[in-house]
């Protein structure tokens, strides 16, 4: 029985993952790390701060100023959002309406800091649309570890197995799956790879089609 749906934010609710993909190479290059590639930006999606730091140091050396690069990147992303705005992903409002009609709980489970997440949701009129907004900064280990999903399930008082998690990135999928959630991928920048398929309840081209997957689990 499905009792809750847990949403990643960037790339699932808001069409903002593309801004990070565009800005991460610029940020690393600005600090002289010109070997940082677009593929590296894809790998980093939803990766928690601690694991990002470990990866950066192994890739570029112990002296890399990870926090400074992250802060610089946040400024670039904020500038792009101010310039281009934020659009929601197709089907989000229909899916939320379906959940409300069927008394299914909803929550956001994001790697983005809470205040930034609330600001972005507010820009598209969705800051009050979810029962809870959970940030990976609220737990010790963010994605791809299961902690943030387990914490979200505790907060909404539901078992992970009764929750659908919607993700677009490998790190998010691994986090949700290892927490025990029924994980659905709605691809954004990349399609599911062979190693991810066993972790997925299913895939959907947009959030509209997720409604059909949930209906199947309701009957």
What is shown here, in short?
With 219 residues, this protein is α/β, with parallel strands linked by helices. It is built from nine helices and six strands, in the order βαααααβαβαβαββα. The protein folds into two domains: 4-14 and 88-218, HAD superfamily/HAD-like (Rossmann fold, 3-Layer(aba) Sandwich), CATH 3.40.50.1000; 17-84.
How does this structure look, described?
- One of its GO terms (molecular function) is sugar-phosphatase activity.
- The chain folds into two domains: 4-14 and 88-218, HAD superfamily/HAD-like (Rossmann fold), CATH 3.40.50.1000; 17-84.
- Helix content is 47%, strand content 11%.
- With 219 residues, the chain is of the alpha/beta class.
- The protein has helices spanning 17-30, 38-43, 49-60, 66-84, 92-101, 114-123, 147-156, 170-179, 207-218; strands spanning 4-7, 105-110, 132-135, 163-167, 182-185, 202-203.
- The N and C termini lie close together (8 Å).
Spell out the key features of this protein.
HAD-like_SPP; Rossmann fold; PGP-like_dom2; sugar-phosphatase activity; HAD family phosphatase; 6-stranded parallel β-sheet; alpha/beta; 219 residues; HAD_2; 6 strands; 11% strand
- For the termini, the CA-CA separation is 8 Å
Any idea what the CATH superfamily of the largest domain is called?
A: HAD superfamily/HAD-like
Average predicted local confidence, pLDDT: 96
Q: Tell me the fraction of residues in β-strands, as a range.
A: 5-15%
What kind of sheet is the major sheet? 6 strands, parallel
Helical coverage, percent range: 40-55%
Structural class: alpha/beta
Please name the CATH architecture of the largest domain: 3-Layer(aba) Sandwich
Inertia-based shape: globular
Order of helices and strands: EHHHHHEHEHEHEEH
**CATH class category name of the largest domain:** Alpha Beta
| Largest beta sheet: strand ordering | 3-2-1-4-5-6
Per DSSP, the total helix count is 9
Radius of gyration: 17 Å
Which residues sit in consecutive blocks of at least 5 with pLDDT less than 50?
A: none
Tell me the number of strands.
Answer: 6
The CATH topology name of the largest domain reads Rossmann fold
Number of domains: 2
């Amino acid at each position: 029985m499905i009792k809750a749906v847990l949403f990643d934010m960037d790339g699932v609710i808001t069409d903002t993952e593309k801004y990070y993909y565009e800005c991460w190479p610029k940020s690393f290059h600005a600090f002289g790390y010109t070997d940082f590639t677009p593929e590296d930006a894809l790998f980093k999606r939803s990766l928690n701060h601690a694991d990002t730091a470990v990866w950066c140091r192994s890739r570029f050396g112990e002296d890399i100023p990870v926090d400074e690069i992250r802060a610089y990147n946040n400024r670039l992303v904020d500038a792009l959002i101010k310039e281009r705005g934020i659009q929601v992903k197709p089907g989000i409002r229909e899916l939320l309406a379906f959940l409300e009609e069927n008394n299914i709980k909803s929550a956001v489970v994001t790697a983005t800091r809470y205040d930034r997440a609330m600001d972005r949701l507010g820009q598209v009129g969705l800051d009050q649309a979810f029962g809870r907004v959970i940030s990976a900064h609220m737990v010790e280990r963010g994605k791809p570890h299961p902690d943030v999903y387990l914490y979200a399930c505790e907060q909404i008082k539901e078992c992970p197995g009764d929750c659908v998690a919607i993700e677009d990135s490998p790190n998010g999928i691994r986090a949700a799956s290892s927490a025990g959630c029924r994980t659905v991928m709605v691809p954004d920048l990349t399609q599911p790879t062979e190693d991810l398929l066993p972790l997925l309840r299913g895939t959907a081209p947009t959030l509209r089609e997720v409604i059909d997957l949930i209906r199947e689990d309701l009957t």
